[in-house]
Amino acid sequence: ATGEDEFNSLEPPLNAQIICATPEKWIGLSRRLHNSKFLRSIELVLVDECHMVGTSRGAVLELALLSVRQHNLDARLIAVSATVSNMGDISTWLSSYNTSSAELDPTPAKIIVFGDEYRPVPLSK
Question: Concatenated DSSP letters for 2-32?
């Protein structure tokens, strides 16, 4: 059995306030709930490890975000990563998802960097 088969046997989390899923699981869920009110009610998507963009799994991540945007153009996207080296590229890429208009918004997404000064315990390098 595949992970998607296992996931498809579950009841959709229609009353959930928080859903934690891999991009692959999210794509499976969004396909099952294709035109539901649930998908249109999503307000926030937190994308961890956004540095995957440009890797073999990056296309899956982009497809998962596209599935969110197809159902709700107003959903807010927040992308985080501890290791992203191309913040500008990720910001520009996300700008296309952070607009309610049909045209690409040329304004990059806002970047906030939390450096070592925010760590409670200093790391030795």
Answer: -HHHHHHTSPP-TT-S-----HHHHHHHHHH
Q: How far apart are CA 29 and CA 45, in angstroms?
A: 14
**Which amino acid, 75?**
A
pLDDT tens per residue across span 20-47? 888 888 888 888 877 677 788 888 888 8
Ramachandran class of 22: left when φ > 0, alpha when ψ lies in -120 to 50, beta otherwise:
beta
Q: The tokens of 110 are what?
A: 């806002």
Residue 74 sits at φ, ψ, to 5 deg, of -95, 0
Distance (Å, whole) CA 23 – CA 51 = 13
Q: Which of 48, 49, 55, 44 is nearest to 18 (CA)?
A: 44
Q: What angle, 0 to 180 degrees and rounded to 10, lies between the N-to-C axes of helices 58-71 and 23-32?
A: 30
Q: pLDDT tens across 76-105, in order? A: 888 888 887 878 877 777 776 555 555 555
Cα 114 from Cα 77, distance rounded (Å): 18
pLDDT of 111 above 80: yes
Global pTM? 0.69
